[in-house]
Amino acid sequence: MLSPTNAGGQRPAVFGGALGSGALSIALQAVTAAMVLMLLLASGAPSLQRPTSIGRDTADVAAARQRAAGAGASPCTWTPYLLPPEAHQWALGAAREKVVTLVHPMRRHLTAQLAAGVLLQGIDGDFVETGVFTGGTSIIMLQALEKYDPWQTRRHWAADSFQGLPPPEDEDRGGILAEGKPGQFTIGREVFLANVRKWNITGLDARLRILEGWFNETLPGAPIHSISFLRLDGDLYASTMDALEALYDKVSPGGIVYVDDYGSFTGCRRAVDEFRQRRGITGPLMLQGMPDQLFNEPPAAAKWEAAWWVKGPC
Ligand SMILES: C[S@@+](CC[C@H](N)C(=O)[O-])C[C@H]1O[C@@H](n2cnc3c(N)ncnc32)[C@H](O)[C@@H]1O
User: Fold this and answer.
1) Model-level pTM?
2) Domain ranges of the chain
3) How far is the centre of ligand 1, averaged over its atoms, from the C-alpha of 183 (Å)?
4) Taking the domain 83-310, which CATH number applies?
């Protein structure tokens, strides 16, 4: 077959016309392929084969999750990095607000992110905070409900003795972290309520339920049906364990269990480790580092504060 010619009967010149266009095109393709191969090798790409398990469709995702579970990994790996930009912005604002609280702004930020996260993912259930003190983090959780549950379909359960910590027990002692003291963090229910009311949260009366008393008395019979965000802030072994025993089974799949004192109270950490082991919970425990350690010179030993995990199956 004749190749196209110009008016003078010659082939159109391509890059000086030293090669015919068919041969040139093949040569160019070969050079391009070689260059791509070199680039891939230089970038450390492990294989040129198409990945087979990166969720192309539901079946692929399910198969990948099964393989991960078989390898001991958990599919419960939602992270606040997945929040949309608008929710990131909202969580930063919520963490900066001047609520009255003992809780460090980094943990307030994480609380806001996790609260927004379960609501945006549509995880079923109410919010619960065990250990509300002056109300700071409950206010953030209520603000998340105000913003992301405008239909007022979910409640926020605020549990506290309003008499401070109960006496620490043997499990609270002997570690390197805090032990707690009886009556520490005593604040009246009326102070908690007055603080919360200052924020004029829409539908507050419909959303807020207070469980006043010791956790082992109030939580087991509380009429809570399901929980999307369980925020534990009771400091001690028994306070943490009582809350987990009473409420863990009500946390929905994909819901979040957050423990404020995992990095700061000996008994709290023991309770969480024991409970997770006893219940065979293998989903990764996420630890929140303290970024102020970045600026210490020399750097302090690795330190973290809160811990949280996503309840499976996800
Ligand atoms: C560290 S404070 C909570 C801080 C709070 N989340 C904030 O935003 O500032 C601990 C609270 O847990 C409560 N608490 C601890 N153990 C308890 C228990 N077993 N029963 C009831 N309340 C308890 C204390 O009364 C106290 O108000």
Assistant:
1) 0.78
2) 83-310
3) 10
4) 3.40.50.150
